[in-house]
Amino acid sequence: MKHDGGWIEMSAGSFLRLLVGIAFLSVGLLVTTAPVCGPATEVCDNGRDDDGDGLTDCADDDCQGGDLLIVSEIQYHPSQVPDTEGEYVELRNDDDRCIDLGGWSIQEGSGLPATHFEEGTRLAPGETFVIAGNARSLQNGGVPADAEFRFETTLNDDCDRIQVEDIDGNLRIDLPFCNGTQDRRCGCQGEWPACPDGAAVEFCGASTENTLGDDWRCATTPYGDGDLGTPNAENVCPSR
């Protein structure tokens, strides 16, 4: 080591201590200049505890409060089993938060008796929930149902209406649907596809406003015993 034109002798121990000091100084600079990150935000559909509070996805309070629920698929005329067994309605959470369906209800038409969702029924973002006339797949044509409904009557093959109310009685979904021909009794909007017997109708629009028939398609994917649809699976959405 040179100083004032000369060299300063340094023992090996002193040199080692100098190196250690430089190393600690470097680490200190890195720590003090590193960006300070806030707490992680819980992602509500990845199966992990992102914010470290011991709660995951829909069990975390940070994921509550979603309300953007839509009807994404309807099977109103199964061909492999009777309507009372094989009809189903698929709901989908299009929100980025979980939806608590406990105490909500679904019904066919207006003023008819409703089926209520059980407490603890929660949908994560993007998750679907299928309600069928019969929840047993060996009897309903192979529908992977999550729950069973018993409408006052079976869904009408020409046109009908599906309504969902929240726990406070607020109408969250009011969806009239038709099989091709527009029936003034049901209030269908747009051009609904005329689907053959056994084919469900699937929502294929980009918007969450799904009352327009132009955004629906007849299913072409076989399930279970041979009817067509994608219950509790992604809609295929063939072109018309």
CATH H level, superfamily name of the largest domain = Lamin Tail domain
CATH architecture of the largest domain: Sandwich
* End-to-end Cα distance: 83 Å
CATH T-level fold name of the largest domain = Immunoglobulin-like
Largest sheet: 6 strands, mixed
Query: What is the CATH domain class of the largest domain?
Result: Mainly Beta
Q: What structural class do the secondary elements suggest? A: alpha+beta
Number of helices: 2
Q: State which percent range the strand residues make up.
A: 15-25%
Order of the strands making up the biggest sheet: 10-9-4-3-13-14
Assign a percent range to the helix content: 10-25%
Work out the number of β strands. 16
Order of helices and strands: EEHEHEEEEEEEEEEEEE
- Mean pLDDT across residues: 84
The figure for the number of domains is 2
Rg of Cα set:
29 Å
Q: Unreliable runs, pLDDT <50, ≥5 residues?
A: 24-36
Principal-axes shape call: globular
